[in-house]
Input
Amino acid sequence: MKIEIFEDAAELGKAAGKRAAEKIKETIKSKGEANIILATGTSQFPVLTMLTEDASIDWGKVNMFHLDEYIGIPISHKASFRKYLTERFLDRVSPLKSFHLINGENEPTAECQRLNALISQVNIDLALAGIGENGHLAFNDPPADFDTTDPYIVVALDEACRKQQWGEGWFETMDEVPKKAISMSIQQIMKSKEIICSVPDERKALAVSNCMKETISNMHPASILQNHPNCTVFLDKHSASLIKK
Output
């Protein structure tokens, strides 16, 4: 795992997006197509902007998978990650070879089985991710399941995670935030050949410190990234404030 620190969220996003674009193009050149995982949330805004503005990427050779989605949220809801990825990514690039969004309105076990069958057929070249205020990776809240080999799983969202979603303005009240989601598992994320983890903002500083400096623990789920051989964590000076020393 490597850590790179930038002045602010905008610079962080540009650097992470540039590296993601390079990796996608390198992979297409070497093997003819690229399999990627996209994340959502405010941390990904500038990253996805960089990707969608790169006209040199042949999106027709890219297969996309989706990290997580709330259970029971329609695609019309402003918090829907399907809506997020459709508006901020899919609608802004030429058609992909394939894309696989999580439908949280389907029966959860059946939806996981559908997605598991799809992702089990490929090797993931690049995963974009972030770290939550509670240290989660995707929606794997503490104590995260480090052991399951199922690619997608149903998870319970803890109070800290739900407060973050409300605090970021995705929901009008705390009561509206779902208590369950479908998430890509820790083991599946770690299978990715390269991981680009973007974590701006001072409110993430404690989680970053816990996950980057402390012993790997499922109470700090993103700490598992310490074990990945090709992961770069992109921070700004605010999120990195507790690890600079």
Q: What stands out?
A: DSSP finds seven helices and ten strands in the chain. Residues 60 and 96 are 4 Å apart (CA to CA).
